[in-house]
């Protein structure tokens, strides 16, 4: 029920911002959104609470390495309906997004609220710096995203993982929360639990590694703890769990494209583009990237988002012919080109591009387009691009030779790195390499070993290969740092309803709650 609405919301977002020339952010990590609850809340003693959408402001340091720069207003929201004195504070940032709209994460419709309910805690949602309206400066230029001081060293940047970690710590240590007694619940006297999903799930792990002793316990859902430049692994769970006939046919078209590309068969590629109605798209890599869009639709799936979802509409278009399903090997190349192309012509182009022409909608070479030049705040794409280009990469590209490919090998990290220059020409003269090695060393990536951190992952999550449940990692699963995996998708376990739909997700949620209970019982 709830998630059907979520899907509708996601679809309408995509439709509204149709003219986006960029695939990179289509697969931005990010939490699933749930509707903002409309019911009024009351505290344990029956007092009416402010509406859940009430915005509070915290004076956050602009630069944790240079407090003399002063503060900015960081937005946060809170719900203390279950709170009783002595209870924990459950803190989450929704990460790389406008946090307004994520207020549902304060209630027991999510794991955050379930922990609050079980432990008589209060839930807080804090916006990440440079997202939404929590901005140190009033624009998103390179100049504002980093601090232009004499040093210009990497740790002087303003939008970095380290500043984001320091924000969470400084918030916990200094915020006087608006609830009764809320000025007296700092981490030295009160257990704080850090919850996160996706990038913010990674941030949960990274924070507990980097600043031990502040957050007593953590819950990281689909936490992409390992920064990876060449992140072709994004497509591995998709390839494995999508309908196999659909996977076979997509592989056939991609192999055909890549073969023509290797042979320099420009005329053949042009013919293929035209079958998709994309004959006017100039660059081959942009065409290869457009073909990825159908796969990125996988990311909005959740256990109860079934056949109506765009991803399944796509596979049905390829595999169902006159009411008959293709066998696991698919219908073969010729039919696949026709049916995939026809799907773009009849349905998908309008869905992605509206009435914008192909080069404007899907091209990445015209650097005067507003997508690259718009520096106004509350542009999650721009701020996330900054983090991707500088630190985390996660470039969703074709796999190495020898592996089955549902994404073209024309797409390599340089495709995205070139766009970093488009977006931040003042910062990057040439395509930058993200400092993933440094990130994985500083925050320990897959090697994380901290106390009382619960990892929850999903088998079908395209981000799983960057989590501690990556294939072949065999990360140890202990009672101080448990790892649970359900059959879900991205961050599925954070949403209470997903446990109702899928018993494996319920098991993950219950284990998380049980660990919180055990760990909090040991707090003194
Ligand atoms: C960010 O990019 C995504 C994917 O291309 C798009 O759906 C969204 O509308 C973009 N948002 C903005 C503010 O440009
Ligand atoms: C969730 O919280 C509401 C109060 O906001 C309560 O009425 C409801 O019973 C709770 N749900 C569960 C499953 O405990
Ligand atoms: C962006 O903000 C920075 C820092 O306040 C300021 O120096 C710069 O002039 C602004 N640029 C634009 C284009 O508004
Ligand atoms: C073939 O594709 C259809 C439509 O997407 C799907 O329902 C079916 O499960 C697939 N069958 C196989 C064997 O892959
Ligand atoms: C898609 O439309 C183009 C014209 O825009 C046409 O050339 C092409 O054949 C169509 N492809 C299919 C598969 O119908
Ligand atoms: C590039 O984009 C700008 C702004 O949208 C547009 O005016 C211009 O015509 C485009 N240039 C080309 C070569 O398409
Ligand atoms: C981790 O260990 C627990 C307890 O033995 C087990 O229930 C859980 O399934 C394990 N997780 C994984 C991913 O195997």
Automatic annotation (TrEMBL):
Q: Does the keyword Phosphoprotein apply?
A: no
GO biological process terms, alphabetically, are: proteolysis
Q: Which UniProt keywords apply?
A: Glycoprotein, Hydrolase, Protease, Signal
Q: Which InterPro entries match?
A: AB_hydrolase_fold, Peptidase_S28
Can you provide one Gene Ontology molecular function annotated for this UniProt record?
A: dipeptidyl-peptidase activity
Q: Which domain of life is it from?
A: Eukaryota
Keyword Protease assigned to the entry: answer is: yes
- SUPFAM superfamilies, alphabetically? alpha/beta-Hydrolases
Q: What Pfam families does this protein's entry cite? A: Peptidase_S28
| PANTHER family reported for this sequence | PROTEASE S28 PRO-X CARBOXYPEPTIDASE-RELATED, SERINE PEPTIDASE
The record's comment on protein family reads: Belongs to the peptidase S28 family.
**Record-given protein name:** Peptidase S28
